[in-house]
């Protein structure tokens, strides 16, 4: 038998050693609101009032879900520790273990793994295919034993083909369901969802991986509070405005690690006898980008009669054409970054990619773009935030070789959807969820 809202609330208030007045003051609510709730009169408080009460009463996540349920006249979710808990409500006790398989052995990245061991919230950024997800998943598997209440993994589709980034409200709903909050108890407004998410996580040691974030707006409502949880975000964009989240930029691999990755993926027997300088040149043609190195190795494996030298000749001719295997393609990966740019940024990217040498300064960029130095710097910073341009030294910019080739080959064709108006871009981050 479910206790009515009034009795439940009174019980929790007494447990917290508060009078009705003290509770009202602590929650920033009118005392009449508290009296009304405790008297059990039919009344539908706003979700925000319920959350304020829950906070003042120091309810844990499941108690909070119960409070939301009883004030809405919905079935009460099971409590952890309820001795008679049975049936589907026991989902509240399921420990989520959502990490993808950690199949490939990670090459290199020892420094980055050491950093990930020590920080409670981190965002890994880097260019397409640089190994952000692989690193996050590896680190998460290593850290998992320290987070016995579960490991959550959400693909936010910040850069996915024919798919808009996941709306934060939708991501919160999914996370809450995974955490055991029944669908009908998930609040309608995004702020209430975020508040409930933080409360549910407050007393659970949980590891959260948010993969492929589009931007800060998408991540902000998904940040847990407190130090119980650990957060790893990956994004192709530098997310610099998230309080308490350390940012870690992931570069391409060291040449020696790229050769090790190529050898492992191609199979040692295919590589044996190949001069080191040929192997080094193959990975150099791949720009030491893990995605490219893996595709090159897959190409070699798929053609048993090719030698590594033959692969190198093909890579020298037209690397981007060569770096496609099955559903993996460097061009396709970079296309997705290009798609996220504004019209002005797309133009700058194409011009800089086709007309600059290895590295260039702001003045050269301004001349090519026929604009002021200030405007050129702004565009370069934006492209650098998207990891399409790299600031190699203060004021000196460079494009990764494969990126430069992509930029000079990219044309405005039907394969790119039109640029979204600025107001369309991720308004989901601030709007109410569906
Ligand atoms: N250090 C590494 N050792 C072995 N394999 C790696 C390493 N880094 C990346 N890879 C492999 O390279 C490929 C691309 O890596 P991953 O998908 O992690 O890149 P990403 O940066 O997340 O790309 P995107 O920006 O598209 O999300 C994957 O097949 C991954 O397993
Ligand atoms: Mg990824």
Total DSSP helices: 21
CATH structural architecture of the largest domain: 3-Layer(aba) Sandwich
Strand residue content: 5-15%
- Tally the structural domains: 4
Kindly provide the radius of gyration, computed on alpha-carbon positions and rounded to a whole number of angstroms.
26 Å
Describe this structure in words.
The protein has 434 residues and is of the alpha/beta class. The protein folds into four domains: 5-78, lambda repressor-like DNA-binding domains (434 Repressor (Amino-terminal Domain), Orthogonal Bundle), CATH 1.10.260.40; 110-249, 3-Layer(aba) Sandwich (Rossmann fold); 255-326; 342-418, Arc Repressor Mutant, subunit A. It has helices at residues 5-15, 20-27, 31-39, 47-56, 61-71, 110-118, 132-143, 168-178, 190-202, 216-219, 255-266, 268-271, 276-285, 290-302, 308-317, 319-322, 330-339, 343-355, 362-369, 373-385, 401-409, and strands at 121-125, 151-155, 207-213, 230-235, 246-249, 324-325, 328-329, 359-361, 390-393, 396-398. Strands 2-3-4-1-5 form a five-stranded parallel sheet, sandwiched between helices. The chain has a three-stranded antiparallel sheet with strand order 8-10-9. α2 packs across α4 and α6 (110-118) crosses α7. The chain is elongated, with a radius of gyration of 26 Å. The protein starts with a helix and ends in a 25-residue tail after the last helix. Residues 79-92 and 421-434 have low confidence and may be disordered. The structure holds adenosine-5'-triphosphate (ATP) and magnesium ion. Magnesium ion is lined by residues 132-133, 211-212, 234.
């Amino acid at each position: 038998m479910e206790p009515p809202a009034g009795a439940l609330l009174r019980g929790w208030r007494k447990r917290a050693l508060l009078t009705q007045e003290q509770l009202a003051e602590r929650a920033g609510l009118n005392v009449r609101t508290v009296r009304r709730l405790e008297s059990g009169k039919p009344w539908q408080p706003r979700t925000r009032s319920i959350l304020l009460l829950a906070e003042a009463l120091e309810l844990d996540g499941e108690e909070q879900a119960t409070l939301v349920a009883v004030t809405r006249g919905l079935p009460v979710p099971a409590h952890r520790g309820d001795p008679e808990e049975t049936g589907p409500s026991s989902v509240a006790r399921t420990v989520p273990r959502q990490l993808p398989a950690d199949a490939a052995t990670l090459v290199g990245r020892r420094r980055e793994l050491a950093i990930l061991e020590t920080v409670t919230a981190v965002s890994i950024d880097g260019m397409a295919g640089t190994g952000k997800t692989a690193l996050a998943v590896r680190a998460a598997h290593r850290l998992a034993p320290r987070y016995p209440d579960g490991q959550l993994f959400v693909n936010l589709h910040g850069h996915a083909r024919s798919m808009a980034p996941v709306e934060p409200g939708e991501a919160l709903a999914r996370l809450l369901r995974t955490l055991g909050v029944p669908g009908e108890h998930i609040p309608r407004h995004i702020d209430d969802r975020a508040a409930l998410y933080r409360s549910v996580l407050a007393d659970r040691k949980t590891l959260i991986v948010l993969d492929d974030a589009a931007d800060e707006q998408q991540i902000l409502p998904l940040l847990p509070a407190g130090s119980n949880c650990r957060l790893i975000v990956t994004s192709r964009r530098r997310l610099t405005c998230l309080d308490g989240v350390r940012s870690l930029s992931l570069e391409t691999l060291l040449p020696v690690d790229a050769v090790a990755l190529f050898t492992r993926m191609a199979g040692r027997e295919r590589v044996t006898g190949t001069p080191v300088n040929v192997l080094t040149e193959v990975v150099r043609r791949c720009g030491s980008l893990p995605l490219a190195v893996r595709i090159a190795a897959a190409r070699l494996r798929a053609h048993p009669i090719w030698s590594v030298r033959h692969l190198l000749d093909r890579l020298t001719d037209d690397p981007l054409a060569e770096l496609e295997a099955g559903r993996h393609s460097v061009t396709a990966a970079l296309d997705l970054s290009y798609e996220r740019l504004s019209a002005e940024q797309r133009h700058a990217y194409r011009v800089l990619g086709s007309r600059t040498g290895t590295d260039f300064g702001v003045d050269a960029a301004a001349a090519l773009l026929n604009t002021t130095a200030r405007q050129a710097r702004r565009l370069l910073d934006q492209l650098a935030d998207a990891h399409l341009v790299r600031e190699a030294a203060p004021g000196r910019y460079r494009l990764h070789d494969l990126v430069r080739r992509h930029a000079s080959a990219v044309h405005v064709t039907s394969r790119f959807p039109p640029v979204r108006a600025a107001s369309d871009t991720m308004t989901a981050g601030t709007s109410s969820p569906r």
